[in-house]
Specification:
This protein is of the alpha+beta class. It is 42% helix and 16% strand. It is built from five helices and three strands. A three-stranded antiparallel beta sheet has the order 1-3-2. β2 and β3 form a beta hairpin. α2 crosses α5 and α3 runs antiparallel to α4. The longest helix has 19 residues. The chain starts with a helix and ends with a helix. The model has no long low-confidence stretch (mean pLDDT 92).
Length: 160
């Protein structure tokens, strides 16, 4: 059935060049802090990006999804949101996202925050502290159980 549909759509058309997938690659970079000053703006957008040599078939990919969810990907229920937005009231919005390709090991993790410019240093310090805490102490079983439940609910909503 699919062959018939393709034949109907494309007939005898042939590409002039053969297809060749361009693989994604990671290049080593040194960390740096870049500031773009916009003194006329009342909001600061803080963005942290960390490359990760990971694709979606990696053994630790599911664990990384859960770690991101618990740290900042779980919207208002995450360590970053609990501390930076709810507890300390330093940002209008804060979170993280894990971006991992299907084939190539060239993913990245980002964390972000929207805040008043006078809070940027405090937001950055809190973000660094929460990431370091997650790296050194890990997550609790209760956090993981809640994250699994929330992630599954989110996936179900996405499919509707």
């Amino acid at each position: 059935a699919l062959k018939a549909q393709l034949a109907e759509l494309f007939g005898s058309w042939k590409a002039k060049q053969s297809y060749s997938r361009i693989p994604l690659s990671m290049k080593p970079v040194t960390g740096q802090k870049i500031e773009l000053n916009t003194p006329d703006k009342a909001t600061t957008f803080l963005l942290a990006v960390h490359p990760i040599a990971l694709n979606d078939t990696a053994e630790n990919y599911p664990a990384m999804i859960m770690a991101d969810h618990m740290l900042g990907g779980g919207a208002l229920r995450s360590r970053l949101a609990d501390r930076i937005r709810q507890k300390e009231g330093l940002s209008y919005g804060v979170g993280s996202s894990l971006n991992v390709p299907e084939q190539d090991k060239s993913g990245f993790w980002i964390a972000y925050a929207l805040n008043a410019p006078q809070n940027t240093a405090k937001v950055e310090a809190a973000l660094r502290e929460e990431v370091q805490k997650a790296l050194t102490e890990g997550f609790t079983e209760a956090e993981l159980a809640e994250a699994k439940k929330a992630w599954l609910q989110s996936a179900e909503v996405d499919r509707t």
